[in-house]
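User: My collaborator sent over this chain with a note saying "see what the structure looks like." That's all I know about it. Can you take a look?
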Amino acid sequence: MSADKESTQPLNCRIEKWLEQQGYPLEMQAASALRKCGLWVRQSTHYIDEESGKSREIDVLAIEQEHLGMAEIYFVIECKTSNKPWILFTSAHALDNYNRLFALGLFSSRGREAISNRWDEAEASLKWLKKDMRNGYNLTAAFTNGEDSAFGAAASVVKACSFLLRKAENGPTKLIFTFPAIILSSPLFECYLDDQGKVRVSEIDQGWLFFDARIAKFHGTCIRIVSQAALEQFAADVDEMKMSLRKLIEPDVQKEWKTFESGLKK
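Assistant: Without extra context I'll predict from the sequence alone. Here is the result:
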């Protein structure tokens, strides 16, 4: 559309077009899908970047908090709008020799302990714990020259997760679980080497990216990568994950509550 024709459009139409280019509709759709799961959702919330000390924005923060206040589950989401497809480079060996619990998400020490103590049950009930297929080791936007928006998005969600854990360190809530994710407006493709040594590229709707950037006190985890076409399925997976996790940690929630109550009586 020429500049002259665009200028004759009603202002609200021009604003809507601009908003789509900036990614706001994707953030709104992601927030809406997660609210339907019964999660408390905040949009455009902020965290402190531990490396720079500056306030940064995260697009969507979805929270599950049990009624006693002893456990919190966070789904931390960065939304990326692009007119170019993204590529997830995968391998069946991306997670070789890496702790599967650390690959699941970023948790408080008490949260890791709660899952570790019920490992057999966790393997059977936590869908995201199973990563037996090809997993991603790199993510990039196609048809770009040196643009590193994928790394920036991954670092942002990881730093936001780390901030949530730091913030809770001195509070009564000890069972903290954070799961980072990136939602894309554009198609997502997987690139891998097949058994014959041939490069294969195929479209997928979701995948895992193993991210281990050298960020303070961060040892690596997997980030869920989701195309907009799979947003509803992602929301359903989030719902299943938070319900399964709450059931798994319920004994630890009760234990923490008793400890908290005992402290109040002293």
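A starting point for your reply to your collaborator: The two ends are 72 Å apart (CA to CA).
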